[in-house]
């Protein structure tokens, strides 16, 4: 029997911007078992990337996790800090949102790590790839050299230590052992001539090679959970398949849990055994792969699947469904089903925000849609022009994910616009 | 290989630039009013003496001959003779340049030591009081003419505290150091410090403000880049993320800007030396210009231009070393 | 050119930014002072002898100054009090500092604005042509730019002043001519040579920015289309390239006004100006007497700092609102 490694409950992440409060993640529930691959699928701006970043604690101002619980099963840590933070501990699980930031920080790299969409911009251009991977190894090396309880404090690496390190090679942060391990990791992810490659700079790598290097970097800390945020989006189709194969192999070898963020249903079908479909900051349908792909209930899921031409062919990217991408601004969201203005089956019942209902299929199948509870009733359907200005359902002024890309470089300032720069294939 | 080619190209460009500077200053001398003979001989009425001087200086030759003579002399390292100081321009420059270099280096050190931490604090505590203070301070800094700042420092600091001399240089740095190491004599160094403090602050303020602004905006840009998130995600201590990664990448382009601003630094030195009566090239430049002593003016401008070219080649080489993407392109 | 979008960006940024408002207020105040100097001035700025019965200069209103004077062969202490007749005091030759301050604003703005205009007029056509045609023309320009950069701008400006002299142009003051300000100087001494010199020193920055813009624009589809429709190069430069490169040029021009004000004051401080009604000149005079009359040098310096801050803030506002890509920090200040 598999055990649950991560459980997210009612997670809410807000961004407080000049335009108002953005509810990027608005009450997300997730449950991930050890060794599984969980896919979160959705359009740009659905909050899937922010969900992932909330879990690994990469939300920065103006963003803030305002509510929710993230339960992480790690008996050692629970035992080590149980006395200090009894509130945060439940058996061998820890609520990551109730432990101090320094402890949370210490989990990065060694417990959670992340790979990003665009390898070229995710490496520092002026430092060699080998050195950057070695840094990640060093984080783990130093962490395992210290007992859990003192880790948060010993993690402090002061400016003085750094200045000393720049003067005396023996006091450098990165040790020669870590450098060697970095080369092994490069070899592990299938990079030829890893010794020479380690001394090269990111711009000397091809996109696919660099994505392998990033995976090597993410594996350096032997993490429990690997978060992959659109890991193949920026790559050529053939390279995409290779990277996915690599992730598969490494998962089988190391028993990691993977949280895969993607807009690509083909990738989901190939990699995941559990799926959550995100829309407007919520998971609108979740369950096993079969639940979501075969027994779907939510009209949004149906829309997504209906527009996938060839699931296996890598090209299965998510087609936008007609209508506007939902606003995540708090004052514009209203108290209805957020999908109602694009939903072909919207009824009067949908004007109340639907809770999650269990649905047919496995025990895990849950849907945030009234259709899971009541059948579609033509008589109660909303008139076509109910949401004025928006043609429903088959309008032509749909806004696809691409249209929100303008600010993909500074996601911090414009959190809802997720980086999807690689979709133009 | 690529680096050697790059260096040769930059050197050739540099030679061209220096030729251009020489030509422009020569043209200015040719255009300038006033007869150098008056400077040399005073108001000697004796026409034959005047003609003799004119002939000795080659001023009776056509302009183009004078120009090529001047170029020829430059190639042998001879900058010519001062009209009214009865000395070779080479000697005058040799005597004064150390004072200017001391001042410029001191100002640069003041600027870098203050500005980079200020810029970092400003960028990492954005929109907090420290940031506002640094932003406001640097705005005032780039808007204050340094001759006025110098006078204000004399009025407010020197005349109230009394520790800092307001004029002159006291002792040369190398002499002070010699006395320190040879005889263990500390007072000379302190004296040197007391003389250079106010001029260095005066000259350094504009650069402090400029570097603070550049560091702040550069670091804010840099902090927004995806690699910073990725580096955070792998659990690297924040100090390393900030300094080894972000600050380093912020400073690389700033080095180039500073190389190009060397001209502003020398311009500032001219004025600062005038305010504090600092016996450097800048003061000599002004004095010579007022007197119409063009050979000295030309020599100093040429000297500054050569320094500018050489330092910028060094800066480019350093930049290429720090930024691996450059050499490959 | 000035589209609605630009207008709304400008107003949004203005609403958001306190500093932009401060900049506008500062700049407009200095502008008004300069424009209406003859009306606002209380004394003819050249008129000497405004000192008390012992011949001492007045300190600014509300302050007193303690000096020693010789009286009947003895040294006695004498106290001078500021007077409302001379709010900012008088200088060592007994001229009214407040009136000279206003006229100094006039000189700074005249040189700053006309110098910038002239530099734009030289640099922009050169840069646009070089960037648009590329090739040899462009190489030539870039080499000239390299040479100009190797000169410190103040040093070059001084050398030019040394060679060209300190020519000025007398312009009749319209306000005095119209009879609104009796007893004020009848001509404005416009330091023409200084203006020409600062333009010669700074034009290359405009050329560089214009070149960069032209290079980017010449490959745009609409320019190619216009070309294929038979438009001449001159027309394309005028109708397409120039309007589209206006934003960065305007931002640069703003920054340059500040740089030129500083440059002008430095030149006047060093005695290379042509007019005595200049803040820099006044500071030079104040420097000589700073041990006794500190206010003579202090007051005009505040004028320079405030106007340069004002212009710099305007520049920041335009830059943040219009977001052009200007490399570096322009020519920077000279002072
Ligand atoms: S709740 Fe209503 S509007 Fe929302 S998805 Fe279901 S049917 Fe459509």
UniProtKB/TrEMBL annotation, chain A:
Catalytic reaction list: Ni(2+)(out) + ATP + H2O = Ni(2+)(in) + ADP + phosphate + H(+)
Major localisation: membrane
Domain of life: Archaea
Ranges where the ABC transporter domain occurs: 6-305
SUPFAM superfamilies: P-loop containing nucleoside triphosphate hydrolases (SSF52540)
CDD domains: ABC_NikE_OppD_transporters (cd03257)
Pfam assignment, any one: oligo_HPY
GO cellular component, as recorded: plasma membrane
Compositionally biased residues, Basic and acidic residues: 389-402, 411-425
Primary enzyme class: translocase
Assembly and binders: The complex is composed of two ATP-binding proteins (NikD and NikE), two transmembrane proteins (NikB and NikC) and a solute-binding protein (NikA).
Identification of the protein by name: Nickel import system ATP-binding protein NikD
Taxonomic placement: Archaea, Methanobacteriati, Methanobacteriota, Stenosarchaea group, Halobacteria
UniProtKB/TrEMBL annotation, chain B:
GO cellular component, as recorded: plasma membrane
Subcellular localization, as worded in the UniProt entry: Cell membrane
Signal peptide as annotated in the record: none
Membrane topology: Multi-pass membrane protein
Domain ABC transmembrane type-1: 97-315
Coiled coil feature spans: none
Top-rank taxon, per record: Archaea
Keywords: Cell membrane, Membrane, Transmembrane, Transmembrane helix, Transport
UniProt xrefs under Gene3D superfamilies: MetI-like (1.10.3720.10)
Stored Pfam families: BPD_transp_1, BPD_transp_1_N
Membrane spanning residue stretches: 12-31, 103-124, 136-159, 189-211, 251-271, 294-315
Family, similarity comment: Belongs to the binding-protein-dependent transport system permease family.
Listed name of the protein: Peptide/nickel transport system permease protein
Organism: Natronorubrum texcoconense
Automatic annotation (TrEMBL), chain C:
UniProtKB keywords: Cell membrane, Membrane, Transmembrane, Transmembrane helix, Transport
InterPro entries reported for this sequence: BP-dependent_transpt_permease, MetI-like, MetI-like_sf, OppC_N
Subcellular location(s) of the protein: Cell membrane
Domain ABC transmembrane type-1: 105-315
Lineage top rank: taxon: Archaea
Recorded topology in the membrane: Multi-pass membrane protein
Family of the protein in this entry: Belongs to the binding-protein-dependent transport system permease family.
Name of this protein: Peptide/nickel transport system permease protein
Organism: Natronorubrum texcoconense
């Amino acid at each position: 029997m598999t055990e649950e490694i991560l459980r997210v409950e009612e997670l809410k992440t807000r961004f407080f911007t000049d335009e108002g409060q953005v509810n990027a993640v608005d009450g997300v529930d997730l449950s991930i078992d050890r060794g599984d691959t969980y896919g979160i699928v959705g359009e740009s701006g659905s909050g899937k990337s922010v969900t992932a970043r909330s879990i690994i604690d990469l939300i920065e101002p103006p963003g803030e996790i305002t509510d929710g619980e993230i339960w992480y099963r790690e008996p050692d840590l629970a035992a080590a800090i149980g006395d200090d933070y009894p509130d945060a501990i439940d058996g061998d699980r820890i609520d990551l949102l109730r432990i101090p930031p320094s402890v949370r920080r210490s989990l990065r790299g060694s417990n959670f790590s992340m790979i990003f969409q665009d390898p070229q911009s995710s490496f520092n251009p002026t430092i060699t790839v080998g050195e950057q991977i070695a840094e990640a190894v060093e984080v783990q090396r130093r962490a395992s050299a210290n007992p859990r309880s003192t880790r948060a404090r010993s993690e402090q690496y002061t400016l003085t230590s750094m200045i000393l390190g720049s003067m005396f090679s023996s006091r450098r942060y990165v040790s020669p052992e870590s450098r060697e391990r970095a080369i092994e990791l490069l070899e592990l992810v299938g990079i030829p001539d890893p010794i020479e490659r380690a001394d090269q700079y990111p711009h000397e790598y091809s996109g696919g090679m660099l994505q392998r290097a990033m995976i090597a970097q993410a594996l350096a800390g032997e993490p429990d959970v690997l978060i992959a945020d659109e890991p193949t989006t920026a790559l050529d189709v053939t390279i995409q398949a290779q990277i996915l194969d690599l992730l598969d192999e490494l998962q089988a070898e190391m028993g990691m849990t993977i949280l895969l963020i993607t807009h690509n249903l083909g990738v989901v079908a190939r990699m995941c055994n559990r799926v959550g479909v995100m829309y407007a900051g919520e998971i609108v349908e979740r369950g096993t792969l079969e639940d979501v792909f075969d027994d779907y209930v939510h009209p949004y899921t149906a829309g997504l699947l209906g527009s996938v031409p060839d699931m296996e062919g890598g090209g299965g990217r998510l087609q936008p469904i007609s209508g506007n991408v939902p606003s995540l601004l708090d004052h514009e969201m209203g108290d209805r089903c957020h999908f109602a203005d694009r939903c072909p089956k919207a009824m009067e019942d949908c004007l109340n925000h639907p809770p999650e209902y269990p649905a047919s299929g496995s025990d895990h199948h849950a849907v945030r849609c009234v259709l899971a509870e009541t059948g579609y009733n033509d008589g109660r359907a909303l008139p076509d022009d109910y949401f004025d200005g928006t043609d429903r359902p088959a309008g032509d002024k749909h806004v696809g994910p691409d249209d929100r890309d303008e600010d993909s470089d500074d996601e911090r300032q414009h959190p809802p616009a997720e980086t999807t720069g690689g979709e133009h294939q | 290989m690529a680096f050697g080619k790059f260096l040769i190209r930059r050197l050739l460009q540099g030679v061209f630039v220096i030729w251009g500077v020489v030509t422009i200053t020569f043209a200015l001398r040719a255009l300038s009013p006033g007869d150098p003979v008056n400077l040399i001989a005073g108001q000697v009425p004796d026409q034959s003496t005047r003609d003799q001087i004119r002939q000795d200086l080659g001023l009776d030759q056509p302009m183009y001959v004078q120009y090529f003579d001047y170029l020829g002399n430059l190639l042998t390292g001879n900058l010519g003779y001062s009209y009214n100081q009865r000395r070779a321009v080479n000697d005058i420059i040799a005597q004064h340049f150390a004072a200017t270099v001391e001042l410029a280096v001191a100002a640069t050190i003041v600027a870098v030591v203050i500005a980079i931490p200020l810029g970092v604090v400003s960028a990492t505590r954005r929109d907090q009081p420290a940031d506002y203070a640094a932003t406001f301070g640097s705005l005032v800094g780039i808007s204050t003419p340094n001759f006025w700042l110098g006078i204000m420092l004399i009025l407010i600091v020197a005349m109230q505290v009394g520790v800092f001399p307001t004029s002159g240089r006291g002792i040369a740095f190398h002499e002070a150091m010699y006395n320190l190491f040879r005889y263990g004599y500390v007072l000379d160094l302190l004296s040197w410090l007391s003389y250079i403090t106010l001029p260095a602050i005066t000259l350094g303020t504009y650069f402090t403000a400029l570097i603070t602004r550049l560091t702040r905006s550069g670091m804010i840009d840099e902090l927004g880049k995806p690699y910073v998130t990725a580096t955070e995600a792998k659990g690297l201590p924040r100090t390393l993320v900030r300094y080894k990664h972000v600050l380093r990448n912020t400073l690389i382009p700033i080095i180039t800007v500073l190389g190009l601003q060397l001209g502003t630094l020398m311009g500032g030195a001219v004025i600062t030396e005038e305010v504090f009566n600092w016996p450097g090239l800048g003061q000599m430049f002004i004095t010579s210009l007022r007197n119409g002593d063009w050979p000295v003016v030309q020599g100093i401008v040429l000297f500054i231009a050569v320094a500018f070219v050489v330092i910028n080649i060094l800066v480019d080489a350093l930049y290429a070393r720090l930024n691996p993407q450059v050499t490959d392109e | 050119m000035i589209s609605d979008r630009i207008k709304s960006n400008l107003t949004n940024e203005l609403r958001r930014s306190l500093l932009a408002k401060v900049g506008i207020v500062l700049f407009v105040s200095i502008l008004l002072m300069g424009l209406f100097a003859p009306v606002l001035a209380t004394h003819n700025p050249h008129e000497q002898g405004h000192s008390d019965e012992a011949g001492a200069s007045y300190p600014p209103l509300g302050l007193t100054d303690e000096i020693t004077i010789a009286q009947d062969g003895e040294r006695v202490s004498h106290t001078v009090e500021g007077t409302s007749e001379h709010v900012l005091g008088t200088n060592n030759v007994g001229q009214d500092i407040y009136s000279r301050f206003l006229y100094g604003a006039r000189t700074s703005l005249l040189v700053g604005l006309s110098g910038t205009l002239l530099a734009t007029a030289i640099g922009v056509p050169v840069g646009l042509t070089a960037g648009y045609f590329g090739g040899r023309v462009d190489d030539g320009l870039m080499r000239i730019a390299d040479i100009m950069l190797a000169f410190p701008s103040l040093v070059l400006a001084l050398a030019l002043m040394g060679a060209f002299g300190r020519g000025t142009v007398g312009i009749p003051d319209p306000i005095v001519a119209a009879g609104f300000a009796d007893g004020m100087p009848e001509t404005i001494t416009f330091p023409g040579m200084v203006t020409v010199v600062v333009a010669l020193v700074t034009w290359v920055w405009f050329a560089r920015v214009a070149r960069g813009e032209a290079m980017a624009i010449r490959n745009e589809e609409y320019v190619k289309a216009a070309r294929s429709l038979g438009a001449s190069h001159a027309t394309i430069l005028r109708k397409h390239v120039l309007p589209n490169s206006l934003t960065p040029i305007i931002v640069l021009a703003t920054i340059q006004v500040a740089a030129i004000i500083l440059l002008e004051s430095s030149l006047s401080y060093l005695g290379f100006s042509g007019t005595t009604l200049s803040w820099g000149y006044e500071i030079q005079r104040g420097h000589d007497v700073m041990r006794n009359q500190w206010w003579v040098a202090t007051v005009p310096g505040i004028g320079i700092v405030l106007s340069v801050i004002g212009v710099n803030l305007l520049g920041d506002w335009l830059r943040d609102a219009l977001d052009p890509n200007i490399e570096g920090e322009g020519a920077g200040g000279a002072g």
